[in-house]
Design a protein that fits this description.
2 copies of one chain form a homodimer.
Chain A (H helix, E strand, L loop, with lengths): L3 H6 L2 H7 L18 H13 L6 H9 L4 H12 L4
């Protein structure tokens, strides 16, 4: 399972679109606060693998390319722990 | 923009996994309550177009195959309007 504190430290680049507290800055992006961690892991892995393609998915693919499985678990734990 | 009431009427098949109030029944699925409507539209359209593939995306692709753009807009409006 991921580490929330480590996830927070890794979340700077996410915040530009998903907000400092996991509330998206504009509604074309999803809120992440309080989302289920296993789902977030699956979504991030899908961007990384290319299972999600086209449009904004290409942006996400670039962002997650450098993330390890541990990074992804940590980020998921962090956002899951935020108040929706 | 979508119609919340119409979306609710179309949401029966969604509720089996995403919950009657948009809270996923198990955490491998995402919560939808309070999610941003434009994001939900984009996600549903991505399943429909095949831009999301593999794993659970194949299940979603089957579910959304019969949805019109209006259906998708209505469902997004419905879930966006639920309390997170």
């Amino acid at each position: 399972d991921g580490n929330r504190r480590a996830g927070q430290e890794k979340s700077d680049r996410c915040a530009a679109c998903h907000g400092a507290e996991g509330k998206a800055i504009i509604p074309i992006y999803p809120n992440l606060a309080g989302q289920n961690a296993p789902w977030l892991v699956q979504a991030l892995q899908a961007y990384k693998s290319g299972a999600r393609s086209g449009g904004q998915a290409e942006m996400m693919k670039a962002f997650v390319a450098g993330l390890s499985d541990e990074d992804i678990d940590d980020l998921a734990a962090y956002y899951a722990g935020l108040k929706p």
